Amino acid sequence: MMKVTMNLTDADVLAAETIQKAINARSKAQAVSFALATTRYIVNALSDSRKQLYVRSPDGSLEGIVFPQLGAPDQTPGQAAPGRAA
């Protein structure tokens, strides 16, 4: 295990506290670890440019989640990727 020391902004602390409460973590460090693991999963999943991430609302509508750092998605839901059927 590696020990990491970092300075957090007020917004970072609030984010860690929000995650800590949402996942019932015993510490902010556990919340940050969860956030890193979740982000790693998303980055790996989206490394295939044909994959996109969406959140479905209770009414069934989809909202696309975009990470500008990973590049803009090139499709909308239901639209076929080049060379693929929808």
Q: What strand order characterises the main sheet?
A: 1-2
Portion in beta strands:
5-15%
What ranges have pLDDT less than 50 throughout 5 or more consecutive residues?
77-86
Per the principal axes of the C-alpha atoms, what is the gross shape? Answer: globular
How does this structure look, described?
By secondary structure, this protein is mainly alpha-helical. The chain has a domain at 10-69. Helix content is 38%, strand content 9%. The protein has two helices and two strands, in the order H-H-E-E. The chain has helices at 10-23, 28-46, and strands at residues 53-56, 62-65. The chain has a two-stranded antiparallel ribbon with strand order 1-2. A hairpin with a 5-residue loop joins strand 1 and strand 2. Helix 1 (10-23) packs across helix 2. The longest helix is centred in the middle third of the chain and has 19 residues, at 28-46. The radius of gyration is 17 Å and the shape is globular. The model is unreliable at 77-86 (pLDDT under 50).
Show the helix and strand layout.
Layout: H1 10-23, H2 28-46, E1 53-56, E2 62-65
Helix pairs in contact: 1-2
